[in-house]
Every structure is written in C-alpha cells, then in structure tokens.
Design goal:
With 571 residues, the protein is an alpha/beta fold. It has 16 helices and 26 strands. The termini are far apart. Bound molecules: adenosine monophosphate.
Length: 571
Amino acid sequence: MPAQTGIANRREPFHCQASRTTGGKQTGETMLGLMQDWPLLIHRVIDYAARQHGAREVVSRSVEGPIHRTTYSEIHIRAKKVSQRLTQDGIVLGDRIATLAWNTWRHLESWYGITGVGAIYHTVNPRLFPDQIVWIVNNAQDRILLTDLSFVPLLEKIADQLPTIERYVVLTDAAHMPQTNLKNAMAYEDWIGACDGDFDWAQFDEKTAAGLCYTSGTTGNPKGVLYSHRSNVLHSMSLAHADALAIRASSVVLPVVPLFHANSWSLAFSCPMMGAKMVMPGPRLDGASLYELMEQEGVTMAAGVPTVWAMLLAFLQKEGKRLSTTKQMLVGGSACPRAMVEVFERDYGLTVVHAWGMTEMSPIGSLGSVKASLSGLEGEALIDLKVKQGYAPFGVDMKITDDSGKELPWDGKTFGRLKVSGFAVTKGYFRHDENILDDAGFFDTGDVATIDPNGYMQITDRSKDVIKSGGEWISSIELENLAVGHPDVAEAAVIGVAHQKWSERPLLVVVPKEGPTIDKAGVLAFMEGKIARWWMPDDVQVIAEIPHTATGKINKLKLREDFREYRLPEG
Ligand code: AMP
C-alpha cells in the first residue's frame, strides 16, 4: 500500500478507503465529508423566517383594495394549512397546482404550502392570451387552480377547455367570493379555514421539482422550466448577498416583478431567508400607487422591469415628488435605458443595479454592482458601467462563443452567443426530450453579448433581433436605448428591414411623448455622433403604441409583421 498522508491515516479506520495502485497508476477513492444531510427544501426557508424573523411584516395591497398586513409567523402557519388542505384534496408529490395571481401574501403563502407537500407551484402569467393559458395549463396538467378575483371572468370563459382542473380556489374570503360556476369553486379563506396548521412538511429529495414557469415563447409553443427545491434555495441564497440584491434583515423590499415572472427574481425566497420586510403591490402597478406604497412602508429596495420604472419616473417628475427611503432600484427583464440610469442616480440619488436573466436561469444571471477595482468610477464612466448587464454571481458560469461554439475573448468588443451553466440553470424543458446543452453543459441563452476584461457582460441583442448589415451586426437594443434619451420619445423599438445591398438595415419606430407626431430629423440628429455612422437608422416611423409580450418586452415579432409591407426610403 502506498504511503498515506497523516490525516488520511488517522481517518482510515473509519471513513477512508485507502488509495490503491491499479495498472501501475496510483488512484484515490472518495472520502465523504462528515457533515449532516440537510436537504435544501423550500419549506426550511419559511420555517427559518418564522423562527428568527417571525414578527417581520409582509404588507400587501390586496386585490379587494385595502392594505393587508401579516407576518412571517402567520404566513408559516397558513402555508401549513394550505399543505394540510391540499393533502385532504388528494394532492400528492409531483402534482402541479396552478396560480393565476398578483403579488400578495396569499399567493406567497400558497407557494410554501404547495411545495410543502412536494407538489409544484405552476405560475401562469395572466397577461398571456387565453389560448396560451389553456395550452399551458393543459400541458402542465394542473389539478387545482388558485386564482385572484381579477381573473375569475377570464377563467369562466376557458374553464371548459381545462379538463385537468378539479377545483378552482379564489384567493379571497367568503365576503368577496363571487357567484361562479367554476368547478368546485371555493374562497381560499374557507378552503384553508377548517385546517389547524398542525402539519409536518413532507420529506423528499432536494432535487424534487418545486416550481414550473413557462417561457414567453414568442415563437412556437411556450416551454416549461422546472425549478427544484435545491435550485431555488441555492439561487435565492446566492443572490441575497451585499453585492447582488443586498437584502438584509433591515431591508424593506418591493417586488414589483410578479411572482409569475420566474420566481419574482428570487425575492419570494431571499426576503424571508434574510428576514426582510416584503411589500407586495397586488394588482396596482401604476406610478402613483407604487409611490404611495414605497413611502408609506419605507421601501429601501424595489425590483421591476424598465416599463414599470418609466411609469414611476413619469409620476415623480410630474408631481415633483422624491423617494425618501428608497436607496436601490433593481432593473431587469429588458435593457435598462441609459437615460433611466442617469435620472435615477443623478436626480434621485438612487443606486441602480441592472440585472439580466431569464426564466431558464431561475432567473438571475448577472448583476451590475461595482467591483472593488472599479470603485473609483464616477460620472459618465460609472453610467457606462451601470448600463451593462453586469457580472455573473457565484453559481453562474458564462461564456460567449461564435456559431461554431469557439469561445470568444472577453475584450468588451467581440459579440458572441451568450451561454451559461450553473446550479440554477435549466438542463431541459418540461416534457421535452431534446438535449439543449452544448458538449460542455452550457445552455445557449439566445442572447448576443460582449464581456469586458472586468467580467461585465453587455447584451447586444436577442440573436434573432440583431440587425445584420453587410455582414456586421448592429445592436437594436443600443439604438433603442439611445433613441429614448431624446426628450420627445416615450418608447422606441428598432427592427431590421430587408435591404438589397446590405441585406438588412435598421428602422427606428417611436412612440412620441406628446401628440401624434415628432420631429424625425431631430431624433436622428440627436443620435448622430453617439454611434458609428453605419449604425444610424435608415428611417424613423411614428406609431401610437409599441406591441409588448406578456412579460412586458417589446414584441419584435409582431412589430416585424406590422411593418412587413414597409419599404425603406431609396438612397
Ligand atoms: P424571460 O425568460 O421572459 O425573462 O426573458 C429572458 C430574456 O429577456 C433574456 O434572454 C434577454 O433577452 C431579456 N433580458 C432580460 N433582462 C435583460 C436586461 N437587463 N437587458 C437586456 N435584455 C434582458
């Protein structure tokens, strides 16, 4: 037997299988650590929150109207009641329970209750077309559907196409329960009312599925992303830290990002894990309603998509208001325009953290906090950094490649396909067999990006939206961000239009802030000099409204259809 290290020798009698010599080569054998098996299960998060931060509040604007206040202790008990009731209704490990609901305490506690029996919360985005909702619920084969009052009329129209749903639970109390013919319909408060919360969470492997969320699917049918207990717990834990979401026990967090957008960017778990107060906006996401909540509840950090923040900003500017307690704005879901970073940081003294991610990544893949080596940056240079989508946190490996899969340099200039791997990145879609990873186990995000020498990634475009002009790529996102900096432009979108010589050229489509028209030449003049000459849009078209997808992104597919007959000016 070959010589052993001292430590290995000491452990050998109990725990180590000695290394051996096979075929002349010395091999080792695994020595397992002596730590406990403590599966990373979601209900441990709410157990912890109830024990250590039991009195910490969760405040919601209820769908019925009034502000509702509860605590992690109460949510813990009520989640157990949900588990108890699901068990009585015959729900078992692996069953899917749909939720069609806004961000409120009831939605939150139902997640913990559903996962507490080993069932799977399936968040359905109410902004999808009814046909898509039907398709998704049938694909998931959901057994119970929890809905807010707002969506009862919608469900009544499509319920006959949802054969797998055995019961509809309306997230309200008896006093607000509408008359409905939905199958076995019950008010949530009655549904859990007879349970006492004396329930032991089910025990199972941490890799068990916990949540299901379908991607927006601008082409083809939506695809289901299936999160596990382990991936959700690790993701939330890795994102709570100071250089990511910076959530602490003293934080007051407003997740404007809905629970139905990929785990509300982990906040449904990270906040209870840290003991932060949660402020849930319910159905009212307009600037005035958000401002009121932020001020009344002392929100320190708010998370949402740029469209929502544009509404808040418009309100603040119009009313001459300031946010007195808010320190940090988390902006993601689509590119945060430079003008928004500037106004939030310069005029309102807020720290903008730009985040990128996708449903397939649980969802956060990068965040733009400032690394130590860049801490001296200020002014324009700091804004330049903040406009980038940021660097990958621990748990996300990132690379950019060319079409053949060859890795490209991190020089901040070379564009490539952005690929990722990590403990909370999908390896396949629900009920799909095909392999979606490359040979090294990386998932192609469908985004095109650069990564700079400091590790900061910048999205250039979706690979299908990038404009291919004369063999070179033009970033539609960069042009859009620039155009919205013009004072008269409310929203902008750029699409590629066929061109005989260059194959494609950019067309800028804008929605004016006031009135039906805008000085097109003025918009182009504003952009000139800020980008390469050959990136300049060939034309500007004015429309009343830009189409959006159900997750609030510009619907380029629809826009391209709308402009199918359009021809660029000669010249
Ligand atoms: P979803 O799965 O619906 O969340 O969509 C994910 C896609 O949204 C990503 O692949 C990106 O194309 C886009 N996206 C998300 N965050 C950002 C961001 N900060 N900047 C630019 N694009 C983003």
